[in-house]
Structure formats: C-alpha cells, structure tokens
Design brief:
This protein has 458 residues and is α/β, with parallel strands linked by helices. The protein has two domains: 255 residues, Aldehyde Dehydrogenase, Chain A, domain 1 (3-Layer(aba) Sandwich), CATH 3.40.605.10; 181 residues, Aldehyde Dehydrogenase, Chain A, domain 2, CATH 3.40.309. Helices cover 41% and strands 17% of the residues. Strands 11-12-13-10-9-14-15 form a seven-stranded mixed sheet, sandwiched between helices. A six-stranded mixed sheet has the order 6-5-4-7-8-16, sandwiched between helices. Helix 2 packs across helix 6 and helix 4 packs parallel to helix 5. It is globular and about 70 Å long. It comes from Herbiconiux oxytropis. Keywords: NADP, Oxidoreductase. GO terms for molecular function: aldehyde dehydrogenase [NAD(P)+] activity; succinate-semialdehyde dehydrogenase (NAD+) activity. InterPro entries: Ald_DH/histidinol_DH, Ald_DH_C, Ald_DH_N, Aldehyde_DH_dom, ALDH_GabD1-like, GABD/Sad-like.
C-alpha cells in the first residue's frame, strides 16, 4: 500500500509521501535512544508538565486535527473532534496519575528474608515500537504514547499507510509540549519493513493494534527476540438483550454502538443476541433506526455515517453480506453498496445467520449487524462465546441474578451492563482468546512497558 492520504469520500489521492530510507529510520531510532537517556533521568513532575502542555496543543488544534482525520479515514467531523478531545483528556489522566501508578511497594516484615528492608520499584525500559491502525489515528496512538512517555520510555510509531498526516502530526506533538527531541518518532515505512525494526537491538518492546495475522507475525518476531509485546487484535462483540431490558434504550445504544466510527471499531457491538420474547420488537425498531441514518459526506455535520476507510474494506464487508444472503440470511435494511464515488456502505441488519455463513464467525468491520433469536441466557452465552474473539461485550437486563450470570459467563475482556462498550482511561482495555494479550489504559497499561525491580537491603 502506498503511503498516501486517499480521501474515502471521493477516492481521490490528496497527498503522497515518500517512505523513510533505511538511513532515516536508523537516525530516528538513534534519536529515540538519545531521548531515552534524558527521559529516564527526568522526574514525573517534568514529564507531567510536558504531557499537559502537549495536551493543551492537541486540544487547541482539535478542529484542525478533526478535519485531517475525516479526510484521511472518513469518520464524521463530530466523532473526529471527540477523538482529539478524548486523547487530550487521556494525556492529562496519565500526567496526573503516572507517579502513583508506578510507585513500588515496601515489603512488610523484611526480617523474614534476613533483610533490614526490601521494596520494589518500576523503571522505564527504552524505545518501544507501536504498530497502529487507521480507525482511530490519534486515539489509538495516544493510549500507548501517554503512559509510555510518562513512564520514561520513548516511542517509535509505525502508523497505517493511509493516515500519514496523522503520523506526522504525532511525530511533533510531544516535542511541542516540551519533551526532549526524539521522544516520539514516526517511521514512514511499509509493513514489510516492520520486522527489521523489531529485530533492532535498540528497540526493546512493541505494541500492536490490528488484525490477527499481523499480531501473530509481530508476536512471533518478538518471541524470537525475547521482547515483550501487547496485542489488541479486534473482536466480534456480542450485545445481549433480555426481556427485562429497557428496549428503547437498548435499540438506541445498539444503533450507536454498531455505527460508531462508521462501524469500524474493534469494540463496536457486532452480534446482537436477543431473547425471543422481545426479538420481533427489537428487530423492527433496530431495522427502522438503522435504515433512517444519513449516510454521506463526513464533513457535513448532519451526516450520521461516512464512508469506509478503504476500498478493500468495503469489498470485504460486502462479501460477508453477500455470502450470508446467498445462503439464506435475510437483509432487513441496507446490504447494497451505492453507486458513485467514495467507499460508502449503508447501515445493514442481517437476520437468520447460521454457522454455514462467513458472517457468523468473521468480524464485520463496517456498519453491518447480525441479529440472533435466543431462547434464554444460556443460549445467548453459547452463541456469544462461539467465536475466536473475546474483546468486549454488552448485556441488557434489569434482573440482578441474570446480570451476574451473564457477566460471569461471557468470555471477554470487558462487560458493559445496560450501556455501550467504549474505552476509558480509567479502565484497563484488552481482550482474551484471539483478541490479544496484555492491557492498555489505566494502571495496567502503564505497567506493561516498565521493568519491575526488587531491592533487598542487609
């Protein structure tokens, strides 16, 4: 894939960028190494001041950043603004909390170890490679970069090739806040060159958000180099609706969750498992609401759903729907890509999906929802867990016993009760099974890329 800004709403290539040469990549890694020597000796107060200043820059430029994101990957302006502001908020969260998150503990009764004292401490490890996707070009990076830099590490970003302007914006953002030169560096390189960077001894660890094959590849390289990785590899999140739920709220949230970011989020609800007592009413209301959304120019404030980010993404999504329809599934709304420019695909609802269809098992990365009729909570859990993924989930019920049974029974990194799956800096984020390993955000996220040292004193 060329390193270029191709507007998804028009299909027009707006800017192209030359990949960094091997010499340029080498120099950028050297910059990260040099910056680490400074960062590791700086104080939490130093880094917090720089991080807050960088957050101020991002917040002040939120409108400019939003238009860049909309142009590069097609999300609506409202959601692009929200992404920029959420990123700034998370930067401040780590500025405020990093020191307490990385305070070691004093060991009680050290005499049991023949010591006068013992304690633990967390220390930064060095340059960390981040391989990031296009769906949240700023947020995905910030949720790694903010804790990594506050811990005293430096970052190297290999961003998706269709969001180079976002990558270059992030390349300078932290230095504009006061971080030492080289603290965060973007590498404009194709995916084929990631392995060489990962095997570079100056790079000590990596994090990746992306496809399962990409994650397996990076993890394999990291394993052979004995380097730590954090992987977030997507999901096919269940959204369970039981008879006691507030159906109006469930339907409204289902629409928002399935179409947020034009349906291109790892934690979008994708499979809707609805109890038979409310199934017909849910499908009718959900179909109506999805069909009523406005699809169009993402720079128009009245647009609900913009284009998919890539032509191949639309082809893949349409292929899933066409496969299901050809095998007997029913499309209650949408299901046909419109004619004309841009990579648009309408909000789509599919019922009658079974295990013979690709849509049953594969992640639909776009505004396509599958709805299943279930007889009870046990059947809902069976279908919900019948997937290789386990990122997030949502349950809608006002029965306390049922809620507890569903929370305990779901194999997922998170469960949201009577609400929409979303990431918060206060909550750890990550999945089980093929959805990845490790956690981002909260205290767990900042502790992924530090070394825990034990100290014993005679």
């Amino acid at each position: 894939m060329a390193i270029a800004t191709i507007n998804p709403a028009t299909g027009v290539t707006e800017r192209e960028f030359e990949a960094h040469t091997e010499a340029e990549v080498d120099a950028r890694i050297d910059e990260a190494v040099d910056a680490f020597r400074t960062l590791r000796s700086s104080t939490f107060a130093d880094r917090a001041g720089w991080m807050r200043a960088a957050a101020d820059v991002l917040e002040a430029e939120a409108e400019e950043v939003a238009r860049m994101l909309t142009t590069e990957m097609g999300k609506t302006l409202a959601q692009a603004r929200a992404e920029a502001l959420k990123s700034a908020k998370t930067m401040r969260f780590y500025a405020d909390n990093a020191e307490s998150f990385l305070t070691g503990r004093t060991i009680e009764e050290p005499e049991r170890m023949n010591a006068s004292g013992a304690y633990t401490r967390y220390e930064p490890i060095g340059p960390v490679l981040a391989v990031m996707p296009w769906n949240y070009p700023i947020w995905q990076v910030i949720r790694f970069a903010a804790p990594a830099l506050m811990a005293g590490n430096t970052g190297l970003l290999k961003h998706a090739s269709n969001v180079p302007q976002a990558a270059l914006y992030l390349d300078t953002l932290f230095e504009r806040g006061g971080f030492p030169t080289g603290s965060f560096r973007a590498l404009l390189i194709p995916a084929a060159r990631v392995e060489k960077v990962m095997r570079d001894r100056r790079v000590v660890a990596a994090t990746l958000t992306g496809s399962e094959p990409a994650g397996r590849s990076l993890a394999s390289i990291a394993g052979s180099e004995v380097k730590h990785v954090v992987l977030e590899l997507g999901g096919s999140d269940p959204f369970i609706v039981m008879p006691s739920a507030d159906l109006d709220a469930a339907v409204a949230t289902a629409v928002s969750s399935r179409t947020s970011n034009n349906g291109q989020a790892c934690i979008n609800a994708k499979r809707f498992l609805v109890h038979g007592d409310v199934y017909d009413a849910f499908v009718e209301r959900f179909t109506s609401a999805m069909g009523a959304l406005t699809v169009g120019d993402p720079t128009d404030e009245s647009t609900d759903v913009g284009p998919l980010a890539t032509a191949s993404g639309r082809e893949d999504l349409a292929g899933l729907v066409d496969d299901a329809r050809s095998k007997g599934a029913t499309v209650t709304t949408g299901g046909e890509a419109p004619e004309g420019a841009g990579w648009f695909y309408p909000p789509t609802v599919v019922t009658g999906v079974d295990t013979s269809m690709r849509l049953y098992a594969e992640e639909a990365f776009g505004p396509v929802a599958t709805v299943f009729r279930v007889a009870d909570a046990e059947e809902a859990l069976k279908i919900a867990n019948d997937t290789t993924f386990g990122l997030s989930s949502a349950v809608w019920t006002n029965d306390a016993d049922e809620e507890e049974r569903l929370i305990a029974g779901l194999t997922a990194g998170a469960v949201f009760v009577n609400g929409m799956s979303i990431s918060y800096p206060e909550l750890p984020f990550g999945g089980t099974k093929d959805s990845g390993i490790g956690r981002e955000l909260s205290i767990e996220g900042i502790r992924e890329f530090v070394s825990l040292k034990s100290v014993w004193r005679a």
